[in-house]
Design brief:
- The protein is mainly α.
- Helices cover 56% and strands 2% of the residues.
- It contains 7 helices and 2 strands; from the N terminus they run αααααααββ.
- The protein has a two-stranded antiparallel sheet.
- A hairpin with a 4-residue loop joins β1 and β2.
- It is elongated, with a radius of gyration of 23 Å.
Length: 181
């Protein structure tokens, strides 16, 4: 590995540390950023041996995106990789590590929106009839299913609910959503 590769790794590590401690990004987001950015610096090392992250230009990023497209990455994956790069260069620019953001005007590819699969009324009734409401566990399971179905919350939000998030006197539950919002 080259010195530049190691310097690029160091820049990414500092960026990830900032995103974790200051921005409080989720573990999954940080993992995606790390994978995407490491893939990009590997591309730099293989194709532009003398390129430091701090010295790249729009053309290098375009060539990277062309390579991803030729490797048949989905538009959703490419969009995520562009978003990772945009976050990195925005951070570098805000920290005054670079004077200009080289990818400011690179557009994130459009990702076709998929409609969620909705359960039929028959499927919902069947699902709700599964828990044995004669047992404590069955009542709990039915309450979980009802809460999940009737609120539209994410499964990750549902599993994070703690007992102190539930306020029976006001009939409310505090949900911590995506990005801890």
């Amino acid at each position: 590995m080259t010195k530049l590769f190691n310097k690029n790794k160091q820049i990414i590590s500092e960026f990830l540390f900032h995103q974790k401690t200051i921005k409080k990004l989720s573990t999954y987001t940080l993992k995606s950023y790390k994978n995407d950015l490491n893939q990009f610096i590997t591309f730099l090392d293989n194709n532009y041996q003398l390129k430091l992250l701090l010295n790249i230009d729009k053309e290098v990023v375009r060539n990277y995106l062309i390579k991803l497209d030729k490797q048949n990455y989905s538009s959703k994956t490419i969009a995520r990789k562009v978003a990772s790069l945009k976050s990195l260069f925005k951070y570098l620019n805000q920290q005054k590590i670079i004077s200009q953001n080289p990818i400011l005007d690179i557009k994130i590819p459009k990702v076709p929106k998929r409609l969620p699969h909705l359960l039929s009324q028959k499927e919902i009734l069947k699902l709700m009839s599964i828990p044995d409401i004669k047992s404590f566990d069955g009542i709990r399971d039915l309450a979980i299913l009802e809460l999940f179905y009737s609120t539209g919350m994410r499964i990750s939000e549902l599993v994070k609910i703690k007992l102190n998030d539930i306020k029976l006197n006001s009939s409310t539950i505090h949900i911590s959503g995506k990005g801890n919002k």
